[in-house]
Amino acid sequence: MISVVMTAYNAERYIRHSLESVLIQSDQDFECIVVDDGSTDETIKTARDIGDSRVRIIEAGRIGRGGALNLGVRESRGTYIAIQDADDLSHPHRLKIERRALDNSTKFAAVGSDHILFDGSDYKWEEAHEAEERFSLTDVSSSLLMRSPISHTSLMVRRETLEKVGSYNETRSDLFDWDLYIRLAKTGFRIGKFLFPLAAHRVHEMQFFEHMERHAYVRHCYILQREARKLLGRGVVHEAVFLLLYAYRLLPPIVRLGWRTDSRPESVSPDRNF
Q1: CB 40 within 8 A of CB 10
Q2: What domains can be seen in the chain, in order of their start residue?
Q3: Best exposed site among 2, 50, 59, 213 by fewest CB in 10 Å?
Q4: Could you tell me the pLDDT band of residue 102, with boundaries at 50, 70 and 90?
Q5: What distance in Å separates the CA atoms of residue 195 and residue 106, rounded to the nearest whole number?
Q6: DSSP helix/strand/coil, 130
Q7: CA dist 171 to 14, 30, 222, 241, Å?
Q8: Is the pLDDT assigned to residue 62 strictly greater than 90?
């Protein structure tokens, strides 16, 4: 079984659409654990009103994103853990595609993809034509020094793998996914990425990053990269590249968006890195 873990904080406007994208999956062998991280709006009521027995809601109080993720993992029962953000959507075949990849491969311990951006109430998915070049996995473990290679809201990982690396780092305030991927690679696990996007990221004004100090977030990226260099045994030459990335991330959004090769906007939340 797959356990879909969703953490939520004041997500009443979007959580219904997010849950519905899980409930209509073509692979129906799943449970969905919603951990409410101390919401002060109608998030819990909105989730309960869906009235589906596959959705289990945990009222955790304000314990933070890392603690909420780990609580969801502990309370889940699946062999595989899939992450779903409360304001994002999953492709209707996401769980089927990712489970099949992990079932058929001993090389990868975790898989995911990039995401598509949208800002409406719904998203019309592209058909998942299963061409080999789109659904073969690329090993992105070697790219971890520069960026987080897959969207957190598309992640599926083996439960035993998460347990071996200690799951999420609750001492962090951001970059939970990037930190996890680095520890996976350090332990010898490989991360696979689909070229076909299996998640849609909703762009809206309430995202956490909109309310963060840019300098603090950029500093956290830099610190994590330096830690990763040591953990992964890379040379000090990377330090100069990290400083260049530090300067790049401080540029105005319109400048950076013009230079970037991926499609993610400035308003992504801190566990979706650029």
Answers
A1: yes
A2: 2-205 (3.90.550.10), 214-258 (no CATH)
A3: 213
A4: very high
A5: 19
A6: coil
A7: 27, 29, 17, 26
A8: yes
